[in-house]
Amino acid sequence: MTMLLDGDQLRTFVAIAETGSFTRAAEVVHKTQSAVSMQMKRLEERVGRPIFARDGRSSRLTEDGERLLDYARRIVKLNLEAMAVFTDEALTGHVCFGVPDDYADRYLPEIMARFSRTHPSVELTVICEPSIDLTERIRTGTLDLAIITYTENAAREAQVIRRERLLWVGSARHSAHLETPVPLALGRSTCLWRHAAMSRLSNVGRPHRVLYTSPNAGAVSAAVLAGLAVSVFPESGLRPGMRVLGPADGFPPLPPCDIGLLRNRHEPSVLADALAQHIIQGLDNVTEADAAE
C-alpha cells in the first residue's frame, strides 16, 4: 500500500529548509523543538531516506532532501489554496505590507494575484519604501509585514527567504562603464548596496564618482538605461536594456543580496500569516531565468 506524505510534516520541513534551523522553524510553525524533531524523524521514515545532514548547529539538506523540498513546497501551496477556497469562514479584514521598489516589479504581481485569488475579501495595502524605512514602520507597528534587504544589524528578527546575486549593471546601448572615473547612480547614503559598490571599487583602485543619488529604483534605473551611469541591482531587479558587468569589464564581484521577511511581532494576525505564506511562495517562484529577462 502506498504511503501518503503528511501535510503538517511537509510544512515543518519547508520551514526548516527556509530558516536553516530546527529552532527557528519551531517558531514559524508554532511547535516545540522536540515536536519538530519528531516530525522530521517520522518524515525520514516515511520517505525511507535521510533528508538532513547535520552541519554543526545548522540543518543542511541531503540530495534527497533537496528533491523532496520541491514537492513539499508545491503540496503545502496547494493545501493552503484548497483550504482557502473551501473554508466556511473566509478571511476578511485589512493587512498592510511593505516592499522596496527594487523588488516590487518582480515580486508584487505574483504575490498579489495569488493572495487575491485565495482571500478575495481581504483589503491589501502596499507601501513601497527603502528597507530602512520599512524596518522602522514594522518597529512602530504601522506595517504587518515587509520584504527588506536583510542585514543582521538592521533587522535581526527578519527571516531570510531568498538569496540573490548583486550585480553591476550598465546600459546595453551605451558605454558609461568605460569612463574614468566611473559615473555611478546609487541609493542614498544609508543604502548598503551603495557602500558595497564604492568600497569594492576603492579596493581595486578604480576611480569612481557618484553622479546620481535616489532612493527610488526607477530613477536609478533611468540613469543607467540612459547611459549616464553604472549601478548595482539584485538579479531579480534587472530590466530590459541593462547589461551585466563583471571582472572582465573592471568591476569586482559584489556580496550576495539576502532578502528577508520582517513581521510585526507585537500584533500577529491570521491575515499576516496567510500573506507571509504567499510572499515566501512568490519569491521562491521567481527563477533566475525570469530575473534575467
Overview of this structure, please?
The chain has 293 residues and is an alpha/beta fold. The protein has three domains: 7-85, Arc Repressor Mutant, subunit A; 91-161 and 258-291, Periplasmic binding protein-like II (D-Maltodextrin-Binding Protein, domain 2, 3-Layer(aba) Sandwich); 166-255, D-Maltodextrin-Binding Protein, domain 2. The chain is built from ten helices and twelve strands. The protein has a five-stranded mixed β-sheet, with helices on both faces. The protein has a three-stranded antiparallel β-sheet with strand order 10-7-11. Strand 3, helix 5 and strand 4 (122-127) form a beta-alpha-beta unit. Helix 5 (101-118) packs across helix 9.
Structure described in brief:
It contains 10 helices and 12 strands. The chain is α/β, with parallel strands linked by helices.
Write the SSE topology.
Elements lengths: L6 H13 L2 H8 L3 H15 L4 E4 L2 E4 L1 H24 L6 E6 L2 H18 L3 E6 L3 H10 L4 E5 L9 E6 L1 E6 L10 E5 L5 H12 L4 E6 L3 H9 L5 E4 L7 E4 L11 E7 L6 H15 L3 H4 L2
Parallel strand pairs: 3-4, 3-5, 8-9
Antiparallel strand pairs: 1-2, 5-12, 6-12, 7-10, 7-11
Helix pairs in contact: 1-2, 1-3, 1-4, 2-3, 5-9
How large, in whole angstroms, is the Cα Rg?
21 Å
Number of DSSP helical runs = 10
Tally of extended strands?
12
- Helical coverage, percent range: 40-55%
SSE-based structural type: alpha/beta
For the largest beta-sheet, the strand count, sense and barrel status come to: 5 strands, mixed
CA-CA gap between termini: 45 Å
What is the average of the pLDDT values?
A: 85
Superfamily (CATH H level) name of the largest domain: Periplasmic binding protein-like II
Order of helices and strands: HHHEEHEHEHEEEEHEHEEEHH
Q: Indicate the CATH topology of the largest domain.
A: D-Maltodextrin-Binding Protein, domain 2
Number of domains: 3
Proportion in β-strands: 15-25%
CATH architecture of the largest domain: 3-Layer(aba) Sandwich
Question: Uncertain spans, ≥5 residues at pLDDT below 50?
Answer: 286-293
